[in-house]
Amino acid sequence: MQAMQRFKSMYARVITAIKRTLNLGFVFELARTLAAIVIALSVAAIIILIVSDDPGFTLRVFLLNPLTQPDGFATIFSRAMPLIFTGLAASVVLRAKQFNLFAEGAFFIGGFAGAIVAIHVGLPGLLLPVVALLAGGLVAAIFGTVPAALKAKLDVNEFVVSLMMNFILLWIGVYFLSNVFNDERAGDITTPLFPEHARIPYISQDSFFTSGVFIAIAAVILVFIFFRFTRFGYNIKTTGDNLAFAKYSGINPAGPIFSSQVIGAFIAGVGGATEVLSHYRRFNWTSLPMYGFDGFMIAIIAKNNPLAVLFVALFFGYIRTGAVQMEIFTRMSSEIVTIIQAVIILLVAAQAFLMSLRKRLMMRRIKGLKHVEATVEV
């Protein structure tokens, strides 16, 4: 009975927290983001109308095929899965106002570490992929301490350090892949095959939809709970929102600055291992997968809200699935997705975009409060 009561209490707190996010600021940011998406899709449509031989068919393939094709939704989720992890990683870091781009390197090295554990650590059943995912996160977090410690202790610019760390880890990984863990019989720079029980199970092989999607969704929920209900998460948010207030409240900023970057690296590392063990039979990455940079973009659009990260990543999965379909069935390049992403980022990042709408909403809210006060006085 006590366990059930505790569960009901936690459930009620989570629902209350979600409702609190539905305030004026949330509504305004949602309206801004939706408007930016509509404008970006309109720009893409105009380009298609100008360039395509059959713009109606091209638009239909781009916008409707991902939703109407067999396993279309599964494909969208599969493409969104790595973006959810890197978007969460970036949102944790940005919540503390740290512009750390290490999610890219963390995703790469986490995938590499997870692959090596999957191949060389003999564990039975589901224990092996679980340990491989945790190893990917742990290795990424260890390397993530470098830019985090330099920023927290010496105030070294985390943007520059993290950017350089991405390429340092890339070439460290490529060296060990080429000279230590390479399977020469494969005729390529790649590891041996993963044991079958080390791989994350498929739900739909036609769309490469695996259980990794549920791991990503679980990560979204955990990050949401972390920020909303833990003191650790509160310290990170407070430090990012107002550094002076955090110091006045007795929070040592070095702790949240350091921990936010390490936690972000851990999440990205788990994401890299999940991606590798979900969609690959060997590890053969010899370049950065670019999911980390995309995650940073998703976190900016989502305003560092873990729940919003999920939906923005799914939208990116949707347009990328549509772009691939469009390239297959028409002569339009899938690179049109880059234009859509760029327009969305420009509009969401522009502080003046739809600011007049926010002012009108605020004035309406103030008038409503004054009306309530007058009613109470009467």
Name the CATH class of the domain at 73-329. Mainly Alpha
Strand content: under 5%
Number of helices: 15
Which fold name is given in CATH as the topology of the domain at 73-329? ABC transporter involved in vitamin B12 uptake, BtuC
User: Which word captures the global form?
Assistant: globular
What spatial order of strands do you see in the largest sheet?
1-2
Mean pLDDT: 87
The secondary structure category is mainly alpha
Question: What radius of gyration results from the CA coordinates?
Answer: 23 Å
Structural features, described:
This protein is mainly alpha-helical and about 375 residues long. It has a domain of about 260 residues: ABC transporter involved in vitamin B12 uptake, BtuC. It has 15 helices and two strands. It has a two-stranded antiparallel sheet with strand order 1-2. A hairpin with a 4-residue loop joins strand 1 and strand 2. The longest helix is centred in the first third of the chain and has 28 residues. The termini are far apart. The mean pLDDT is about 85.
Helices and strands in order:
Layout (H helix, E strand, L loop, with lengths): L1 H20 L2 H28 L3 H14 L3 H24 L7 H18 L6 H28 L3 H22 L22 E3 L4 E2 L1 H18 L1 H11 L1 H6 L5 H26 L11 H11 L4 H24 L6 H14 L5 H23 L1
Antiparallel strand pairs: 1-2
Helix pairs in contact: 2-3, 2-14, 3-4, 3-13, 4-8, 4-11, 4-12, 4-13, 5-6, 5-7, 5-11, 5-12, 6-7, 6-11, 8-9, 8-11, 8-13, 9-11, 12-13
Short précis:
This protein has 378 residues and is mostly helical. It contains 15 helices and 2 strands.
